[in-house]
Design a protein that fits this description.
- α4 packs parallel to α5, α4 packs antiparallel against α13 and α15 packs parallel to α16.
- A 6-stranded mixed sheet has the order 10-15-14-13-11-12, sandwiched between helices. The protein has a 4-stranded mixed sheet with strand order 1-2-3-4. It has a 4-stranded mixed sheet with strand order 8-7-5-16, with no helix packed on it.
- β17 and β18 form a beta hairpin.
- It has 19 helices and 25 strands.
- It is an alpha/beta fold.
- It has 3 domains: about 325 residues, Glycoside hydrolase, family 3, N-terminal domain (TIM Barrel); about 190 residues, Glycoside hydrolase family 3 C-terminal domain (Rossmann fold), CATH 3.40.50.1700; about 120 residues, Immunoglobulins (Immunoglobulin-like, Sandwich), CATH 2.60.40.10.
- The two termini are about 45 Å apart.
- The structure holds beta-D-glucopyranose.
């Protein structure tokens, strides 16, 4: 198969058939998030698209992997590759051809409701993880869809807000992750809902056509986000290739209730997990008007635009408003991806598409990623736990695994382990359980589409703080599991833990000075009780292996390998604390903090983070020595585990570039590269760290990427605030 095949098909296709390949349609099997029917006459197979970044979302169970933020906290792109391969295999097993992920928007706003789907506040970390996951997915024959292109950094007003951002900042901060995902072979890119400098991203010719396609050489498909198109001619001529979902919201909901659609899970359905999130009193069909009562101005796109291409594209082509060559290009791009993965050879073998779901390997990987991403923020020596410690397990949700946030990334797990189950399976001492706080419910954008089932929450009396305190009093150690609430289509209102979880922690810690707090959150959380806790752990959304992964780290069977891919600080310390910047005023979010996002801001202003970017303790200790530059883009050093147990270290290299000729702003230091390595007690190793060229360069509107000549200082350390050695690279 080759471009000849694609050319041959293009020559055979009629106008109506071509148009059918530029937009989604109703999935007759009701399994996919999106569906393009193909053209039977020419053996072009149907194409199925499925969410998403944390696991495959059909109405059947799949491995519920940890959140993207947990994966990124591993600082190990090889793990990302494995993760991508597993996602791809699960997609194949569920008969899906295109995976709607990874999500890789930069973490600009700590409140963003989808940060758990994204990697980092740093473009190099983001790019390496995006590339790893894309490479893994594509290696299985499934198309990866990095999303949401670009500057979709908040959920508040995501469908309308304009990110007002200058070119240098776009190039240095927000675009690199997408560039790396494209270079890694992504076959599709999803445009975002928001506008950039006033233009909807689905209509942004400069970014879609000039930058993504022409400059970066992207030959795949640009698809819209669901209902993320405002026009036909405007989007088609700007470079959009596929309009999704291609049908109206009503049709989408009907298909969900239709035979074969199972009335749930598929398309924009619920989480599919009947035990957690019933989709109506008796699994009723969805409401007749799914948009009734939903304020889509704030977080949701206009659901009436779903069928635009189906209704109007052919006419627009016939009227010459969209050149036929553009239509051909749209179709060619889709066919090229199908061809590339061998799908024009009669489609995948329906009897055996390859792939596998919920295998022991995938279960193991889900646990390994959760472990490797766990960040030990503070530890006064209480961890790792003694095998025979008597423990009290406390927290509102200790009897369930925290799978993820709400929205299109929800996965129905094949299996799950709660914290209580994980601790009970591992502990050799006694285990008492007292939740101490009413359950903190999952929230989901889909809740807005669900009829109110009148269920006001749990029956019976609320769990009491007193019970938790009593359990803590009798135990050697109290483990308090707390969580936040986050969903697509809304931002977190605050970085404080919801409900009275802070009070619960305070009460338990006042009783037992060996209190360990494990926070399962989408991102930064405020920890006013920090000084009172003996240890603080960031466990992100760990997915189905929550309990077993937590036990492995808390008991020290595995070293906590995670480091923070985002800075943790009180809400008012972030650059987006200014309303003009976030959520914006008059429909515009002004990115006038410029390059000073995340640690770049904290370093430039001297503001103190609670926990800096890159921070995380190991149970071992490490010494760094003998650093030198190998060449002008690589440094090496010796790392020794000076502790008495095996451990995992993440060496980070930050570049401080010389002043620019006209004194343009540069962040004090920028992460250039990193390396994650496991070392036995007493072991030393020479480690090379490859530095990203962009860490030395700045983007100049006329000259493009420019390296200013002079001495570039490279600092090697354990975090952005714990720098141990310096090397100079002359450029
Ligand atoms: C989300 C996308 C998702 C799509 C399909 C949208 O609401 O923004 O990330 O892939 O829905 O479910």
């Amino acid at each position: 198969m080759s471009s000849e095949t694609v050319d041959g098909l293009l020559a055979e296709l009629r106008l109506a058939e071509k148009v059918r390949l530029t937009h989604g349609a109703t999935d007759t099997e009701g399994t996919a998030t999106g569906f393009v029917p193909g053209v039977e006459r020419l053996d072009i197979p149907p194409v199925r698209f499925s969410d998403g970044p944390l696991g495959v979302r059909t109405d059947e169970p799949a491995t519920a992997f940890p959140a993207s933020s947990a994966l990124a906290a591993s600082f190990d792109p090889e793990l990302a590759r494995e993760f991508g391969r597993a996602l791809g295999r699960e997609a194949l097993a569920r008969d899906q051809d295109v995976l709607l992920g990874p999500g890789l928007n930069l973490v600009r706003v700590p409140h963003c409701g989808r940060n758990f789907e994204y990697y980092s506040e740093d473009p190099v970390v983001t790019g390496r993880f995006a590339a790893g996951v894309v490479d893994g997915i594509e290696s299985t024959g499934v198309v990866a869809t990095p999303k949401h292109f670009v500057a979709n950094n908040q959920e508040t007003a995501r469908a309308s807000v304009s990110a007002e951002v200058d070119e240098r900042v776009l190039r240095e901060i927000y675009l690199p992750g997408f560039r790396d995902a494209v270079d890694a072979g992504a076959g599709a890119v999803m445009s975002s809902y928001n506008r950039v400098n006033g233009t909807y991203m689905s209509e942004h010719e400069r970014l879609l056509t000039d930058v993504l396609k022409a400059e970066w050489g992207f030959d795949g498909v640009v698809m819209s986000d669901w209902f993320g198109t405002e026009s036909v001619v405007g989007t088609a001529t700007a470079g959009l290739d596929l309009q999704m979902p291609g049908i109206s919201a009503e049709e989408l909901f009907e298909s969900m209730g239709a035979p074969g659609g199972e009335g749930d899970g598929a398309d924009r359905g619920d989480s599919g997990d009947a035990d957690r999130d019933a989709d109506g009193p008796d699994g009723d069909a969805p409401p007749a008007d799914p948009t009734e009562g939903f304020d889509y101005a704030d977080g949701m796109p206009d659901p009436t635009t779903g069928g635009l291409y189906r209704e109007e594209l052919a006419d627009a082509v016939e009227a010459g408003e969209v050149p036929e060559s553009r239509l051909d290009d749209m179709v060619r791009r889709l066919l090229t991806q199908l061809d590339r993965h061998g799908l024009l050879d009669g489609g995948r073998d329906a009897a055996d598409p390859g792939g596998a779901v919920d295998t022991p390997e995938h279960r193991g990987l889900a646990e390994r990623v959760a472990v490797r991403g766990t960040v030990l923020l503070d530890n006064d020596g209480v961890l790792p736990l003694a095998d025979d410690a008597d423990v009290a397990v406390v927290g509102p949700n200790v009897d369930e695994a925290i799978l993820g946030g709400g929205g299109s990334s929800e996965v129905t797990p094949a299996t799950e382990t709660s914290p209580v189950e994980g601790i009970e399976a591992r502990a050799e001492g006694s285990v008492s359980v007292a939740r101490g706080h009413p359950r903190v419910e999952d929230i989901s954008l889909f809740d807005a589409f669900e009829p109110d089932d009148g269920n006001e929450g749990e029956a019976g009396p609320d769990p009491s703080v007193d019970d938790a305190v009593a359990a803590a009093a009798d135990a050697d150690v109290a483990l308090v599991f707390v969580r936040d609430q986050a969903t697509e289509a809304a931002d977190r209102e605050s970085l404080a833990l919801p409900g009275e979880q802070d009070e619960l922690i305070e009460a338990v810690a006042a009783e037992n000075d060996r209190t360990v707090v494990v926070a399962n959150t989408s991102g930064p959380f405020e920890a006013p009780w920090r000084e009172d806790a003996a240890a603080v752990v960031a466990g992100w959304y760990p997915g189905q292996a929550h309990g077993s992964a937590a036990a492995a780290v808390l008991y020290g069977d595995s070293d906590p390998g995670g480091r923070l891919p985002v800075t943790f600080a009180p809400a008012e310390a972030y650059p987006t604390a200014d309303e003009r910047r976030y959520p914006g005023v008059d429909g515009q979010a002004h990115y006038d903090e410029g390059l000073l996002v995340g640690y770049r801001h904290f370093d430039a202003t001297g503001a103190e983070p609670t926990y800096p970017f890159g921070h995380g303790h190991s149970y071992a200790n490490f010494a760094y020595r003998d650093a030198r530059a190998v060449d002008d883009a690589t440094v090496e050093l010796t790392v020794e585990n000076t502790g008495d147990r095996p451990g995992r270290e993440v060496v980070q290299a930050y570049v401080d570039s010389p002043a620019t000729p006209d004194d343009l702003e540069r962040p004090p230091r920028e992460l250039g590269g990193f390396a994650s390595l496991a070392l036995d007690a007493g072991e030393s190793r020479r480690v090379a760290v490859a530095l990203d060229e962009r860490a030395f360069a700045r983007y100049d509107a006329d000259e493009g990427w420019t390296v200013d000549p002079g001495e570039h200082a490279v600092s090697l350390g354990r975090s952005s605030r714990d720098l141990r050695l310096d090397v100079t690279i002359e450029r």
